[in-house]
Amino acid sequence: MPEDFISYFSPELVDEVIERCKILIAASPDQPKYHRDLGHALFKKGMYPEALAAFTRAGQLDPTDTSLQLAIGRCHELLGQLDEALAAFENARQQKPDWPDTHFWVGKIHFVAGRLGEAHACLDECHKRNERFRDALYVHALLHEQEGRLAEAISLLKKIIALPPLPQRSQNPFPYEMETLFDDPVLLDESIRQMEAFVRVQPGFADLHFKLGMAYRRKGLKEKSMASFKKALQINPQFHQARHYYWHWDDDPRPDAG
User: Can you say whether the dihedral through the CA atoms of 216, 220, 223, 225 is positive or negative?
Assistant: First the structure.
């Protein structure tokens, strides 16, 4: 949060999301989105074993969600469980071979495990799909350096330097579905307050503008909601959910609409 941010609630409402998700899971244990959001909140707090359990359950309920396989793999990686991480990332790559992320994570695990040939092949596939993938360029540079190819390593590092600078914060501050909290009027208002504080200092997150738009929508604030959806689309023109809600305010009944 911004340095001067003071709130009775937890920063980014992570504790409130955890509490709310546990209540929702107790009532509807077969809803994968509640387990997924719980996993994201626990991961954010650095509780990786607990996050892994939540993501794993969500993946069992929705095995086609590739993002869950990536989340499971990240937990295993951070816990030092490389074989399990590789299995999850390979599952993700089989599901979405067109995603550069899936090739990157498989390649990174091969690199950490010392399988340099496999790492090269995966990172090459990642570059084919996104030649500006910063983390992939960096890991590939380390790989070349380890093999003594300093010229190739320096070339990749120069590509990283030439990329636009990352925002001060490059990770989405609210990686879970904020709508989990919107049934509580107090938490709805606090969600809006915290998200507004973030977009003032970090305006580049399309997902955050979308979630803020959904919060405004829940309160019936059409003008603010439309402005947030529009901003999300300006940042990411392929944001289909933002486009849908921008054009379907009247068609989709909101919970507060009688």
Answer: positive
Stretch 18-29: mean pLDDT: 96
User: Where do we find the tokens 């509490």?
Assistant: 19
> Is 84's pLDDT higher than 80?
yes
CA distance linking residue 144 with residue 133, whole number of Å: 17
CA–CA dist 225, 123 (Å, integer): 40
CA 247 to CA 228: how far, in whole Å?
Answer: 13
Give me the amino acid identity at 115: R
Share of the chain above pLDDT 70, in %: 91
Residue 192 and residue 201 in contact, taking contact as beta carbons nearer than 8 Å: no
Give CATH superfamily name and number for 178-247.
Tetratricopeptide repeat domain (1.25.40.10)
Residue with tokens 């499971």: 72
Q: How far apart are CA 34 and CA 11, in angstroms?
A: 20
Nearest to 224 by CA among 244, 196, 250, 188: 196
Radius of gyration over alpha carbons of the chain, in Å? 20
